[in-house]
Amino acid sequence: MAAGSSAGSAARTENVRARHIGCISPGMSNSLTRADFCRLSLSGLIGLSACGKHAATPGQKATPSSKEASAQPPQPPLGAVQTSPSAAPAEAPASVPKRKLGSTGEFVSMLGLGGAHIGKSKLSDSEAIRLMHEAIDGGITFFDNCWDYNEGASEERMGKALKDGHRQRVFLMTKLDGRTAQAASAQLEQSLRRLQTDVIDLVQIHEVIRMSDPARAFAPDGVIVALQAAKKAGKLRYIGFTGHKDPAIHLAMLDAAQQAGFAFDTVQMPLNVLDAHYKSFEKSVLPVLQARAIGVLGMKSMGSGDILESGVVQAEECLRYALSLPTSVVITGIDSREVLAQALRVARTFKPLSPDERASLLARTLPVAKDGKHELFKTAQKYDGTAKNPKWLEKAEL
Questions:
Q1: N- to C-terminal Cα distance for the chain?
Q2: Using one digit for the tens of pLDDT, what is the confidence trace for 32-46?
Q3: Beta-carbon contacts of residue 123 (< 8 Å; ≥ 6 apart)
Q4: d(Cα 247, Cα 269) in Å, to the nearest integer?
Q5: Which fold has domain 98-393?
Q6: DSSP 8-state secondary structure symbol assigned to residue 294
Q7: Lowest mean pLDDT segment, chosen from 6-20, 99-113, 184-198, 341-355
């Protein structure tokens, strides 16, 4: 949340907007009373709502028939409650629960909106902005991004979406690739301009995926120096790091910080139903973060769809598993209204897995998890942006 906006932080618990439906239409028969017409209108709306619900699967859109599409009225914002003057006020849907962000004193939505998906070319700027606004209205107020996502388009779109008071309603995070102080400082300035903000709540060192990264980060001219200076200048509030390759590298980064007398505010890493079986961040890194009161940012709960392709687990199970771990926030990709609705549903109805449910889910996923073939972020370079573009480590050039 932007600096100086503490007075607005109490407004983070958003009220759901109500859309009012008019009760008088031109040409209405005089024999039909206003109250009768309102009751009939409400009944019709309820019927349409019940018929129009479709199950959502990440990456896929529900496809109504042409007759259904022509019969349905324009869709209101997700989570909005339709009412009529003759109906009793409807209860607002439950908000997305908030969790403590390590020892920062901040509380953030348990689900976060991922910046990579929101910048993809399949979405227009207006569609992406609408999704972000609906996520905020629905209670997802942790926003993830990165300097390099979609060649800067993700940050640019998010900056547009956060205008007109929306910036004050979110906890904003982005990530930098630069390993030198000079490169990181230049990338940070570009991110600030794209995001159209003076301060970013959390800035993280992106893709700590090499054993050489910790030493480079904490070198006299390394990225940590730049981030500390930017924090002192009021350009960012908290500092963290991310990575997806190997828990041993995360532990090395944490050890380097401890030796330097530095404490990270957050750490981001893969946490999912397959991770528990192979090079497990959950088993190796999570206990260390808990012991040091560092905020835990879970990612790749579905492995960008790779985990779903195993065929043994569903999207909502993946989210529920990750949320059942001691995470501050689980960041998930959202590229459609259907996927957003699914994420909101999981968060609003969330109940932690029982020990039996967890054991059953891990037993089911064990056979497909042993060699990491569905966690390609660990076993291949498919998601290693800085390996494909090593200049990002040294320069602020995409």
A1: 27
A2: 444 443 444 444 433
A3: 131, 335
A4: 9
A5: TIM Barrel (3.20.20)
A6: P
A7: 6-20
